[in-house]
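Fig. S4 source data, part A: sequence.
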Amino acid sequence: MRGLAPLMLAIAALPCAAQAQDAADYPVREVLTAFATACSGVEDTAVNLASAEAAGWEHLAEDADTPVSQLMRRGLEALEAQSAAGGTKMPELIAGGGFRKQVAGRTLYLAVSGAKVDGVASHGCRLYDFEAPRGVSAEELEGWAARAPDDFEEAPDGATRATFSPGLKPGHAGMQANYVPPGTDPMPAFSVGGITLVASAVDF
C-alpha cells in the first residue's frame, strides 16, 4: 500500500487563522468525541461521508480555500506525480471529501479519503486542528479509549505520536493521534502542524 501514502498521509504544514486558547483549556474530550463520531464508519467511505454530514460537519467544495482542501489537493498532486515518475498506474480513488466544524470554540477540519490498488481498498478519516496549542497525552488517550496506546513517542520540541491497533472499532486497521507544535517544521513521522487524529481501515 506504499503507493497510497501521499494521498492517505498529511504531507505539509499549512497556515490557518490562529485560535487563541491556553493549552490548559484545550477541549481534548470534545475534540476526541467529534473524531469518534465522524470517523467511526471509516471502513465504508460512503457511510463515513454520510455520518460526518449527519453529525453537522460542513461539506466543503473541492476548490474551497481552506487548509484541509489545500492539503487534499496537494496529496492528490503528489500521488499523481509519484505514479508518473514510477510509471505505475494511478490507484482508483474512492470519492471522499473535506469538512469543517466548530467544536468547543475550535475550528476543526475533516478529510475522508480512499483508494483501491489491485483490489485492495484503503480508507482514511482524519480530523485536524491545525492550530492546537498542545497535543493529547497518553493518559488522556487511555482515559478516552479505555486502553493505552500501543506506542507513544515524544520529540524534544513537544511533537507526539500515539498509535493504536486495532483502531476505533475492532475491524479498523489502526488509529493515530499526532501533534506538531504550530509553526515548526513537521517531521514525516508526525504529520502536519497541530493535532491530527487518524482512523484507517483496509478491505482485502
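Fig. S4 source data, part B ends here. The chain has one domain: 2-12+27-203.
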